[in-house]
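Lab notebook, bench 4. We co-purified these components, and the gel suggests they stay together. Before we commit to crystallization screens, I want a quick structural picture of the whole thing.
Request: model the full complex, all chains together.
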Amino acid sequence: MTEGQHLQIILRLGDDALVLGQRLSAWCGHGPILEEDIALSNTALDLIGQARNFYTLAAAREDQGRDENQLAFFRADNEFQNHLLLEQPNGHFGDTIARQFFFSAFALERYAFLSRQLVDAEVAGIAAKAVKELQYHWEHAAQWILRLGDGTTESHEKVQASIDDLWSYTGEFFHPDEVDEAGAEAGILPDLAVIRKAWNARVEACLSQATLTRPEDGWMQHGGKQGIHSEHLSYMLAEMQVLPRTYPDATW
Amino acid sequence: MSSTQHEWPLWEVFIRSRQGLGHKHAGSLHAADAAMAIQNARDVYTRRQEGVSIWVVPAEAITASSPDDKEVMFDPANDKVYRHPTFYKLPDEVNNM
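Here is the predicted assembly.
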């Protein structure tokens, strides 16, 4: 693993957390009920907190005079290396929950590994805090998958459609590129084949309990980790970045 | 969805803020069932580290005293100061009494 790859691994972790955190933040004030509005906002804040930790670490390691804000607000869409799933629009509540369900199952396993690895103690420290948060994000999403899937005919049909629509974005989690492979070889990143097994077990058990059908593994989307994104990321970043880019020294 | 189905039951939330203290009423919330009530309570009432334990109780399971009975229920205790343990000196080590 080169120093550049090591840095890239930390940035990718931050990008995943920031992009999903920003997406979820848009639910603030729009949740289906007050309690759920707070739950989604809490989750968003957890993710943004994780992103801040990874960006701060990445900025210190690269030593280019950048800080967490520069990494979040002054990079272009093709410099973000998040998984494509996370930038997909919120859609309706079922879509948001399905996205959260798929990612949390993956992130929980990944953070569990990251918190145990001995290659990078600072990454392990951030992951140890995040793994508790992810445990809750997973519980929350899985509960909703159960309720929506095993709820009314309408909720079942809608969330099944969400699961089907987003399925092709889940393959990217387990499709290693050279950074993933170098990281796994160095022992900082997990073997994605192992994570895939754990992810499948989690997701399949919950879907079947929720009377939902696990989609067939077919053609999968790729590219996010290489900076090749769906159209949605640029719009999201434009909204997220406009203020600091217009007023770079803005404070409040 | 009809409006009757839309209203989830009301739950009363009790939070224990520290080990050794009792659960204290924190507020109420709506949830479809007990598991969701616990999750919602965690999000609504403990996000600033307020608690170490949560109880949720269906609001309809609580029987309350009637405000009209206030005088009958509570006034007779007015002149019975001897029921207060104020005549004993407590050691400093005893907290939270």
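The radius of gyration of chain B is 19 Å. Worth comparing against the SEC data before the next meeting. The mean pLDDT of chain B is 84.
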